[in-house]
Design goal:
175 residues, 4 helices, 5 strands, elongated
Length: 175
């Protein structure tokens, strides 16, 4: 049985890289606004010889956004591991590369929960140039909760599932 996923609040700005409070994640909004967004600057180390973001680095950007999203929900990786003995792993990912990003670009990397199951969540992620609506890269990511000690599947803690349980607009919009 699938639990409803989180509603998406309005985009936000972070101060000195700090994510917003979890309450901001629960505020509802209509029409495909991102559930969570973090700024990411493209550095020289992120690019290939042509000054374009190397394809594998998008996975790092998406990981940063997911990590900050969980932290904003009160579920920092270290807290989950210490208190519940759980870690999240990427079960599968599908990435669509639409347009390149270049050296010094400022990106907004978004996370939205699409589906919540007992031990897995399916997320939709999108990276855009800051202030622009068009997607550069999108991904659908399924993460799974596993026990840190033996790597076996485990249920996502109820308190965490409750924080993201709310109706979600039908589908993400990233033009």
């Amino acid at each position: 049985m699938t639990a409803p996923a989180a509603a998406s609040p309005k985009p936000h700005a972070t101060v000195a890289g700090a994510p917003p409070r979890a309450a901001a994640l629960r505020a509802g909004a209509a029409g495909g606004a991102p559930a969570f967004s973090v700024p990411v600057r493209v550095y020289y180390e992120d690019t290939d010889a042509g000054g374009i973001v190397y394809y594998a680095n998008w996975l790092r950007y998406f990981e940063r956004a997911r990590t900050d999203w969980l932290r904003a929900l009160g579920a920092a990786h270290t807290r989950l591991a210490d208190e519940s003995g759980l870690v999240f792993v990427v079960r599968d990912i599908a990435v669509d590369y639409h347009r390149p990003a270049r050296l010094d670009d400022l990106l907004q990397v978004e996370v939205r929960l699409l589906e919540a199951r007992r031990a897995t969540w399916t997320l939709w992620q999108c990276a855009r140039l800051d202030g622009h609506p068009a997607a550069l890269v999108t991904a659908t990511v399924r993460i799974a909760a596993v026990r840190r000690d033996d790597g076996r599947p485990a249920g996502i803690p109820r308190w965490l599932s409750a924080r993201v349980a709310a109706p979600l607009p039908q589908s993400p919009v990233c033009g």
